[in-house]
Amino acid sequence: MDYGRFLILRGPAWRELEEALVRLTSRRGHRELTYRGLEAVALGYRRVLQDLAFARSRFPTSGATQRLAGLALEGTRLLLREEHGQRASLLGFFLRVFPAAVRRRAGVVALAVGLFLATGFLGFVAALASPGLGMVFLGPEAIAGLEEGRMWTEALTTTVPPAVSSSRIATNNLSVSLFAFGGGALAGAGSLWILFTNGLLLGAVIGTTLHFGMAPHLLEFISAHGPLELTVIVFSAAAGLVLAHGLVVAEDRPRRVVVADAVRDALAIFGGCAPWLLVLAVVETLVSPAPEVAPALKLALGLVLEGFFLFLAFNPVAGREARGGSPA
Amino acid sequence: MIGSQQGASAGSVDAGMGLLDPGVVLGIDNVALELPLASAGSRALAGLIDYLVLLLGLSVALVAVGVSLQTLGLEVGWIVAVISILSFLVQWLYFFLFEWGTGGRTPGKMAVRLRVVGAQGGTPSPGALLVRTLLRPVDLLVGLLMISLDDRARRLGDRLAGTQVVHAPRPSEAWVLGRPPASWTGREIELAESFLRRAPQMQLDVADELARRFIALALADQPERAMERSTATDAQAALKGILAAGQLSNAR
């Protein structure tokens, strides 16, 4: 077949596909697409790929080959959806996908919790043994306040409006969680850094306030948002460590497959945590700094939020499904 | 969508094993598709534009929100709190929402004509776009280096999300001869198409002279097409009429 005949014979089909793809790019075109229409587009796309193969072999540098290559790429982009992870409704995600990922990566989650608790204990013991350590974490002003029976947290809500300090704390916590997850891509260094520093800081702060007899005040301040916030940060770091596991640890499966599995689970774990960061932002903005909310109510709210999160994360029904999933 | 692919597919595995050139994936019936991968330079430029848009857009939006809330009588503390949270969310969601809503493009990518696609050249899932967004802060440290070292110019977020950034099709540049003379071989057709593509960059008198030579060649074979010449305003237009040349229309 010569070039001119090729264009005459096949050109109309290319134009037809071009027009169909243009329609597909608009929302209206998408909505109006019928099953028969979709089949016609798919057939046209397949024919274009065949024409491209023919044109490449017979007229490799011709305009028609360029035109077909562009058309094939555009068709591929619009007609092929590359899935990434499991598709599920929002409810399905929290009831099945999230807990299943937690179960599959239970070892990594346990490692993250263990590291956090260990460094927390270390900070606690060190602060009790050497009260001067609290100075390093809290600064001289906060320590001077503790000596006078004042919590430094009071300054957070008295020097600036409570809403301002709480929103700053909330966005800071969101950043910490995001870095705990994303830092996993640096071979886990970022996630480990977040676990170590947060564990050490929490332990040292509790130890220091205990030393000055102010621990109940601290616990009252963090009771509404603290338990879930720390859990979310630890789970986010665990998600980061799952990423690191996929990137670093050698397995007998191809790296590409291992990384794809790791990303799917890490994203599911982080996805199960992310919405709670928004809930926590609201709690930290409205409840934690509010003096009119009774301490018992703050504690109850904190425990309910924590309990609900842990129930979702360790949902036993999803756990049974997870055993059939891919290995961690 | 006529198809969906989960995880690593045949084409990307072949590419990963070095059986195909970087940027080449296998489509239906094993037809090779060459993805026009974006290089570090164009991606850095798109990123720069995006961060400028983000900075300017955010500043204007936050001032507008602040003034509106003040008009509504909200306390300064609450206004600062709202602005702080809003600013945080916009910074984190800018890239994800744009790439999700516009088929893999942000304002910066639109300006440089880039697009995020999946490993097979298809539409990436929202999950993949979320992963590459969440890893963006890490890529601000190592991304450019990774793009430079990777054979498919992927940053860390792209590697983990299974995505890549490609050049969007150029606006119609290539010309196709709709009616080449029967005696012309592929070589002559390609020469004519190549000439029509490059003619706008040539000096006018040189371009016209070359167009006249092509016309002479075409009319020597099919003199009945001389009619097309008489209605044209210049030599290049006459050549296009005689050869029924048209430009690509697949650019978006």
Please tell me the overall pLDDT of chain B. 80
* Estimated helix fraction of chain A: over 70%
Shape of chain A: elongated
Broad shape of chain B: elongated
Distance between the termini of chain A: 55 Å
| Biggest interface found | A-B, 78 and 82 residues
User: Which sheet architecture does the biggest sheet of chain A show?
Assistant: none
Q: What does this 3D model show about the protein?
A:
The complex is a heterodimer of chains A (about 325) and B (about 250). Chain A has 16 helices and one strand. Chain A has about 325 residues and is mainly α. The radius of gyration of chain A is 28 Å and the shape is elongated. In chain B, strand 2 and strand 3 form a beta hairpin. Chain B is elongated. Helices cover about 60% and strands about 10% of the residues of chain B. Chain B is mainly α and about 250 residues long. Chain B contains eleven helices and eight strands. Strand 1 of chain A pairs parallel with strand 5 of chain B, so a sheet runs across the interface.
Question: Which key terms come to mind for this protein?
Answer:
heterodimer, A: mainly alpha, elongated, disordered C terminus, B: 252 residues, mainly alpha, two-stranded antiparallel ribbon, two-stranded antiparallel sheet
Annotate the secondary structure layout.
The complex is a heterodimer of chains A (328) and B (252).
Chain A: H1 3-25, H2 27-32, H3 35-58, H4 63-79, E1 80-83, H5 90-104, H6 106-129, H7 133-138, H8 140-147, H9 152-158, H10 162-182, H11 189-211, H12 215-222, H13 226-248, H14 255-286, H15 295-313, H16 316-322
Helix pairs in contact in A: 1-3, 1-4, 3-4, 5-14, 5-16, 6-11, 6-13, 10-11, 10-13, 10-14, 11-12, 11-13, 13-14, 13-15
Chain B: E1 3-6, H1 10-16, E2 24-26, E3 32-34, H2 40-71, H3 76-101, H4 107-112, E4 114-118, E5 123-124, H5 126-134, H6 136-149, H7 156-161, E6 163-167, E7 175-177, H8 186-198, H9 204-221, H10 226-231, H11 235-243, E8 245-247
Antiparallel strand pairs in B: 2-3, 4-6, 7-8
Helix pairs in contact in B: 2-3, 3-5, 9-11
